[in-house]
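Anyone else keep sequences and structure tokens together like this?

Example one:
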Amino acid sequence: MTDEKEPSMPEENDIGYTFETTKEIEIPTMLIDQVIGQDEAVETIRIAAKQRRNVLLIGDPGTGKSMLGQAMAELLPRKELEDIICYPNEEDPNTPKIRSVRAGQGKAIVNHHKQRANQQENTKYIVLFFVIAIVLFLAFTTGQLLTGILIIVLLIFLMQNMTRSKGGALVPKLLVDNSEKTTSPYVEGTGAHAGALLGDVRHDPFQSGGLGTPPHERVEAGMIHRAHKGVLFIDEISTFQVKMQQAILTALQDNKYSITGQSEMSSGAMVRTESAPCDFVLIAAGNIETVRDMHPALRSRIRGYGYELYMNDAMKDTLENRRRIVQVVAQEVHKDGKIPHFTYDAVQEIVNEARRRAGRKGYITMRIRELGGLIRTAGDVANRKDKDIVDVEDVLEGKHKARTLEHQIADKYIEKKRQYQIIRNTGQAIGRINGLAVMGDSGIISTIEAEAAPSASKEEGKIIAAGKLGDIAKESVQNVSALAKKYIGKDISNFDIHVQFLQAYEGVEGDSASISIATAVISALTQIPIRQDVAMTGSLSVRGEVLPIGGVNAKIEAAIDAGMKVIIVPHSNKDDVLLDARHKEKATIRTVRTIAEVFEYAFTGEHKDELVSKVRTFLEEDLG
């Protein structure tokens, strides 16, 4: 029943291009054509852009949500852009007037008002000059020089006071200037505070004596107004307060939104403009929790007047999609501008890494941002070596340097545990097994020990688990008791079985340690030793079937790095195993379907065959 062969690397090495370096690869000019692996999303974005629909993008980080938002701004029909101008309101200064004009006219209108205001100022100074001249002439001719000087000072003071209090009010303020834009605006409002997103009115500390700044000059446009006739992109929209989400909803419904001071302690809170236009297309993004925390009415508005999309996290490993990964490498090199181009073999290694990160056979990862990080790191390695191209060695070294924080922590964790012999990779022991777990995207060794002791209760024995276990992990421990009762052939109610995850301070969750727990418990009850150069991972059903788990490649690599010689994984995960050359030849991978096969590879000693035969017989009766 057991598959003795080691899972092999994919044989499909054709990446769809023939080239020496990625310099020969043509890069699309349109952003929408640079988005790969999201065919359904791209098609929907094209439709949404044509019809000016809102879009909600849900998916993992780095799968192309921001690029889709930018691409939509390029695809929007070329509507006539507008400038937004704020005028003073003579009847109610705290309600400035808002007007919109064709793009480019706003600056001309404001400049015209400035010129007229300057002419008025010049006229005042000319009149003042002649008045002063007349006063001085009369003062000299009448001998009243002191009186003349006092009159001149009073005239200058009055003129300056009039200039401060009324001169600025003559000139409107240009809030949004689209005079130099050739495409629809794209505004990213991720993480913006209320004032930046919705507009604000600056505080004025001088509000009396003619020293204050006119209200219309203190008005500042928000991102929703700068996105007028364009796209407003907001990532992690659920992090916005409910009040802000409600304001976005109002802006979407009315296509206009008044600007007011966002702080109640500011003098700007007394100012509220007329409604300013904000006819934008909203692209909201986030992960699956975003849907739960999002304002229901806002989501309903998007769904009713747009589309909801779930982004792909992987694409099928086809020749066409491999060509797209080649395109990604060329795009990243071009965008970075500081790293050399990649050779054919280097790109092939990037494609293999994209396969491995997908975590399952026949797919390529769509977390392009993380793949781009590896590309840039490999380029930096080549630059450090003063190379003009990036080769395979640079990519392999870049993979080590581009390890995630969790991977680096896991490496140090394993090194420390081996140093203190918490993780063993030689010899044999009763009730002790090397389980495999994941931390972030990295694998770690989780040592598990089991001990059977006389029951403290006369009624029944218990399985007692220690090691900061989560709910699912606790349930998997309980499920092991059903197997133990059936396969041991003796009443285990007389025993308390203690299971401990050694120094699992970070906690344990999930059921991927089920076969490890079962092996340790059976070993403790039967006193059959376990090989310590074996590590294993797999979920276990109550009937003894080994079920698939996640993160198989990360777990296998952690086991190999810890010096394990045999690694047991579920047969269902066989096609998911994609190891690089550095790990491939260092250990034997055993795929198993049942717990009997696990015992066959993990146990050693004279009673091993008897137990394996007994368990296999039970399984044949149950599973057929």
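And example two:
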Amino acid sequence: MSRRDESEKMPPHKPNIEKNCGQIFSKGPTITREIFEKMQKNKTYIMGYQIQTRQFWVLSGLSVLFLLSLTGVVAMWFTDMFDNAVFANLAIIPDTQSYDMWVKPSPKPLLKVHIFNYTNVPEFESRDDEKLNVKEVGPYVYEAALERVNSKFDGSHVSYQEQRVYKFMPELSIGRKQNDRVIVPNIPLFTAASLNKHSTFLTRVGISSLLNSLNAKPFLSLPAHRFIIGYEDNLYALSKSYMKFQNQKPYEHFGLVSSNAGIRDDVVTINTGASDINKIGLIESFNGEPALNFWSTAECNDISAATDGTLFSPRLVRNKRPIQFYLKEMCRPLPLHFKEEVKILNGKIPAYRYTLPENVFDTPERTPSNQCYCDLDLGECPLQGVFNATPCTFGAPIFMSFPHFHNADPALKEGVTGLNPDSVYETYADLHPTLGFVMAGKNRIQVNVQVAKAFGISQVNMFEDGLMLPVAWIEYVLEDKTLPDDMISIIFQTTFTLRSVELGLKYGCILSTGVTLFCILMILKNKWARRERTSSVRPLQANEEICMSA
């Protein structure tokens, strides 16, 4: 019978699945063990050296870990990679915590107003007293809540307006009441005299007659609250009509802080820090203009290096470099210089204290850079210690100084009695050493009005020309003891948690680099030692074997 016939008679082959699976599972462990044994016996050659495959993979893994650790050392110790990653969270970007804090800051600074009450006006007007006497009353304390409204983003810029709401705090006002009567200079009257000082005689006489018809006097008796927040009388109502005719936008009421109350007309555009965190908060334009137009040089009109005073460049602060903030009431940026390292929050948190230098109100003879703030048309510069803010106050002869004419010309201090110029009234900001935001601080400034004596305006005849009348000194205070819990939490996290993470990464990378390098060297050392022992044993020669056998 042929094989073909036999194959045709044989039943078709059916694989025994159960038997095959049983063989696979029964022999599986043996196969796996054989694979690992072969891996251990397999050899790999690296630069002429023979090494087991398993050791090769261990050495490769350690080498990769070593390179990663070394890269971490370079990144943490010699670059700003970690800082940039942290700073990126400061950028003003919608729907982030930093944006929410920027729009409506939870810390609410206090506005403290110290009014100079004139106590001998009748005696001065009757010539019984040679000089006016002032008595400081206050402080009248208000909580100042800030919100940035009408924000519009354009790339890395954001435009906004400020809205402030002032709430009187009687418990902090040391017994002072909002209805306390104070006698203060009539600033609109002195403004009218100043604006018409160089007018014709007939014009000055007409102004004097108008003031008489309005019963305008050089001094007013007002409730303290109205003088601070804003008041309106017949003279100011007439002044508003005139300013509107001149296409100016006067404030609804006249007061020490009326320009800040409610929503300000000014539109500020700042850098969000999204593309460069060290530009965060820098003013890009003010009311659509990239620079001011109040002063005589481009340098003094430049505001591109200033912020609004709440955020500063982290790199500048960390390196203790000078910074600037823009003060709208003076229409100029003010410098802040690093002074010292301090502790806040009961000595738990380190801070960098920046202060306003005392030469900021110096004459050009002392500080030549202040020359551009002088009136070049008239060739006049203010006396030492005061700043002429007239160009940005609708022509009102307003001058700024340190409280009580501190560090000012003695002639200013002798114009009136009752001042205490020897006290130190420092303006400072305590900044986060790493992130550059304000944690505490005080901004102190005094408002004064200058008398411009004009022949024909009888209301100012009793004064000496150029007499500087102190009005009030104002301070914005952010105290560390009154910070809200969420702000304190942020300060502690950014001070300790971030610092711990940074130190952990820095020294962790060093430790990891050292450990992996040590392991690599030990593996190579053992391999080299084994190779040397193997090479020191040479095979016997034939004659040596015979001799030994004999």
